[in-house]
């Protein structure tokens, strides 16, 4: 799994327990990110639809959710990964921009990323294994990067893991069926069909995933974009088309309210944290407005992401961000028929 802000590492067991308790067979993860939660639902036997507006998140969903492990020729997959591993490195966009102008990767790893990614584009673009191979490369790059887990900056001295060699591994594919959808949750929510359970985990502050993970966006799009600033962010980060209403204080409350009303699911689970622009009471009100009979709120204490713990530095070593508070509260609201919501809460409480 890639390092990801807001990834539900701690809550994943809770969300899986809720899905099990309400006997979910069809699940929607509307802001799927790493697909950690969607994978948990798939492991529980659900047919899962994973939606995200980021291209890299879509590739992760095509790999882990849409691909049925039972249908994959593992010998062929391992063979292709071996072929990619054996490629000699060559200097390209990643080396020039992300290793020489910025310092996200050691140049020898950047050169291998360049040559593997070019080879994938040339020989495997139309292959059903393309998203699996690309995911393997993204995860390999993530294991040797030199960041705190966001790509707004790189570390002033190399992270120890950056000195390791890039190593492609077979992603842990899951058996079962699923669907990956790339797009805006607000436009899609009402048109995806009916689900037993929908999980909503929207961004809850101004920090945009498109810019926080611009290196993955470029690795997946492979479009060698113009870039700006020390972090070498994509110039299209400034375009309205890459902005999300969920990162705007003015637009987020109504965007979330509309998604809650549009999504068609018997049980709806919403998670957010206590640094969000909306309160639990706001969300509870919207869930009731959407017609759900009963809503329960569960709170979980969690550690904040690592950047908040060590502070943020620019490449010259100057501190550009403050160390914030180190813990926050994750809220989970469960809405649906009273009997099912109570069953879900009971399953979480009894662990
Ligand atoms: C809090 S993260 C979700 C994390 C995910 N639950 C996990 O465990 O990895 C929010 C996600 O919403 C996506 N996103 C932002 N705006 C969106 C939009 N308008 N429509 C769909 N997805 C969006 C981001 O790309 C990001 O992956």
How is this structure best summarized?
The chain has 351 residues and is an alpha/beta fold. It has helices at residues 12-21, 36-43, 55-66, 74-85, 93-101, 107-123, 130-143, 185-188, 209-212, 214-221, 252-262, 280-289, 306-310, 338-349, and strands spanning 26-29, 47-52, 178-182, 194-200, 227-228, 233-234, 264-273, 294-303, 312-313, 319-321, 327-336. Strand 5 (227-228) and strand 6 form a beta hairpin.
Q: Can you describe this structure?
A:
The protein has 351 residues and is of the alpha/beta class. The protein has a domain of 100 residues. 39% of the residues lie in helices and 17% in strands. Strand 5 and strand 6 form a beta hairpin. Helix 3 packs across helix 7 and helix 11 runs parallel beside helix 12. It is globular and about 60 Å long. The model has no long low-confidence stretch (mean pLDDT 92).
Task: Set out the fold topology.
Blueprint: H1 12-21, E1 26-29, H2 36-43, E2 47-52, H3 55-66, H4 74-85, H5 93-101, H6 107-123, H7 130-143, E3 178-182, H8 185-188, E4 194-200, H9 209-212, H10 214-221, E5 227-228, E6 233-234, H11 252-262, E7 264-273, H12 280-289, E8 294-303, H13 306-310, E9 312-313, E10 319-321, E11 327-336, H14 338-349
Parallel strand pairs: 1-2, 1-4, 2-3, 4-7
Antiparallel strand pairs: 5-6, 7-11, 8-11, 9-10
Helix pairs in contact: 1-2, 1-14, 3-7, 5-6, 6-7, 11-12
Residues 4, 6-8, 31, 33-34, 36-37, 51-54, 57, 184-186, 201-203, 209, 244, 246 line the site of S-adenosylmethionine.
């Amino acid at each position: 799994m890639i390092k990801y802000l807001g990834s539900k590492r701690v809550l994943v067991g809770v969300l899986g327990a809720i899905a099990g308790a309400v006997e979910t067979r069809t699940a929607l993860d509307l802001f799927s990110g790493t697909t950690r939660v969607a994978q948990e639902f798939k492991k529980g036997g659900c047919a899962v639809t994973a939606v995200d507006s980021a291209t890299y998140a879509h590739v992760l969903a095509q790999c882990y959710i849409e691909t049925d492990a039972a249908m994959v020729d593992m010998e062929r997959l391992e063979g292709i990964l071996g072929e990619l591993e054996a490629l000699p490195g060559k200097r390209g966009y990643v080396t020039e921009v992300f290793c020489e102008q910025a310092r996200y990767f050691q140049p020898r790893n950047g050169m291998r990323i360049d040559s593997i990614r070019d080879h994938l584009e040339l020989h495997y673009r139309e292959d059903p294994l393309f998203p699996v191979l690309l995911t393997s490369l993204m995860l390999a790059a993530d294991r040797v990067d030199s960041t705190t887990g966001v790509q707004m900056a790189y570390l002033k001295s190399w992270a120890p893991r950056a000195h390791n060699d890039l190593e492609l591994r077979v992603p842990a594919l899951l058996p079962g069926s699923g669907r990956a959808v790339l797009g805006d949750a607000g436009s899609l929510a009402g048109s995806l069909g009916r689900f037993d359970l929908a999980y909503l985990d929207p961004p809850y502050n101004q920090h945009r995933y498109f810019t926080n993970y611009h290196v993955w966006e470029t690795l997946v799009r492979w479009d060698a974009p113009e870039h700006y600033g020390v972090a070498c962010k994509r110039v299209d980060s400034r375009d309205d088309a890459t902005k999300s209403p969920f990162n705007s204080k003015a637009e987020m409350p109504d965007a979330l309210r509309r998604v809650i009303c549009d999504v068609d699911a018997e049980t709806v689970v919403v998670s957010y944290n206590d640094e969000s622009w909306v309160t639990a009471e706001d969300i509870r009100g919207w869930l009731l407005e959407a017609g759900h009979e009963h809503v329960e709120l569960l709170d979980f204490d969690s550690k904040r992401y690592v950047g908040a713990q060590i502070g943020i530095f620019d490449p010259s070593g100057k501190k550009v961000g403050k160390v914030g508070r180190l813990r926050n509260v994750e809220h989970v609201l469960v809405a649906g028929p009273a009997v099912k919501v109570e069953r879900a809460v009971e399953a979480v409480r009894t662990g």
